[in-house]
Specification:
This protein is of the alpha+beta class. The chain contains 8 helices and 17 strands. Bound molecules: adenosine-5'-diphosphate (ADP) and magnesium ion. The site of magnesium ion has 7 residues, from strand 10 and helix 8.
């Protein structure tokens, strides 16, 4: 596990502390722990045993799904080219592959060797040569990952990483535990992927902060929601400045092998599914504004906030009331035909 902690996660946690303080007569169960390479914050208006079960499930998922943990199922699959997976891992892989398909390859879990080559896993950042990228791109294609029952197979040279979907999958799993235990009110911040379960105990909606790309320790606005999962992908989260003075972010366009660089600073997706929100925030970030806009026109089962480098906050009409701007440098624009 890498040791750094994402600033976005911290920003959202600060907001969570501010907004949850004093909102209920009964004190919530709260917990904070590191998992999936980030900080997780749980606020559960329910039993301590539910909060403990959620932490346990997320820790278990991290152990199974991490590409860097030598004992994980995904690590074994990448090393050996085939593996029999347990049910949870097979489910996460199957759902991730469906998201790759739904995004027409803007999300591609086999982009991992390219992410590694840029140094985003080791921390040894550098700009790869075009010939290295061309060689690595030959093994990038999620359609060649075979999953039959619980047995997965990868072609030689192909490796996978569920980093773009795992926190969403964890949010969906956590929600199952909240429902199992009859808990009606909780907000779980899983490193920037936020499950707003039910409403606050006072009946109002949760307010979720959207990180400010210019200062990700702060938030630029909030959205109110209930029973939704919010996920943000941003160029400011993990990046390095290359020897050419340019900034390179950790989200890679699987077609070119280059970090996405298209004038979009962050994409926030709000939907009923953690995997959908997490995968789409990454995929739409890769697509850029025009293709993301087209995509939203075709599939209307999610809401969207796109922040651009020219300081626009573009939102879907359903968010017109619930999205509140804090950083006045941004101008809010409702995209009517979304
Ligand atoms: P974060 O994990 O920082 O919240 P994302 O959910 O957008 O952000 O996932 C980004 C991670 O997914 C990267 O760190 C990388 O490991 C991996 N990744 C980068 N580009 C892609 C892509 N196009 N498709 C699938 N996974 C990607
Ligand atoms: Mg994601």
């Amino acid at each position: 596990m890498r040791s750094y902690v994402k600033s976005t996660a911290l920003a959202l946690i600060l907001l969570w502390l501010t907004l949850s303080a004093g909102c209920a007569s009964n004190a919530p169960q709260t917990r904070s722990f590191q998992s999936m390479d980030t900080v997780m914050q749980l606020t559960v208006y329910g039993d301590e045993s539910t909060t403990a079960a959620i932490e346990e499930r997320i820790t278990e998922l991290d152990k199974k799904l991490s590409s860097t943990n030598v004992n994980s199922e995904i690590y074994r699959l990448n090393r050996d080219g085939s593996a029999t997976l347990d049910e949870l891992t097979a489910d996460a892989l199957e759902q991730s592959l469906s998201c790759c398909e739904a995004s027409k390859g803007a999300l591609d879990i086999t982009v991992y060797p390219v992410v590694c080559e840029w140094g985003f896993i080791s921390g040894d950042h550098h700009i790869p040569s075009q010939s290295t990228l061309n060689r690595l791109l030959k093994s990038v294609d999620y359609r060649r990952v075979k999953l039959r029952e619980n047995t997965a197979e990868l072609p030689k040279g192909t490796q996978i990483d569920l980093g773009a979907t795992a926190k969403g999958f964890a949010a969906d799993e956590a929600r199952k535990l909240l429902l199992r235990d009859g808990c009606e009110s909780a907000v779980l911040n899983l490193g920037g992927t936020v499950l707003a379960h039910g409403k606050k105990p006072d009946g109002s909606e949760w307010r979720i902060g959207i990180a400010d790309p210019g200062n990700s320790a702060d938030y630029m606005g909030t959205v109110s929601c209930a029973d939704k999962i919010t996920a943000t992908s941003g160029s400011y989260e993990r990046y390095f400045t290359g020897s050419d003075g340019k900034r390179y972010c950790h989200i890679i366009d699987p077609k070119s092998g280059m970090p996405a660089d298209n004038g979009v600073e962050s994409v926030t997706v709000i939907s009923d599914s953690g995997v959908k929100s997490d995968s789409l925030s990454t995929a739409l970030f890769v697509m850029g504004l025009d293709k993301a806009t087209d995509y939203r026109r075709q599939r209307r089962d999610f809401e969207l906030v796109i922040l651009t480098s020219d300081k626009k906050a573009l939102i879907t009409p359903a968010l017109a009331q619930s999205f509140q701007l804090k950083n006045e440098q941004y101008s809010k624009e409702v995209i009517r035909d979304w």
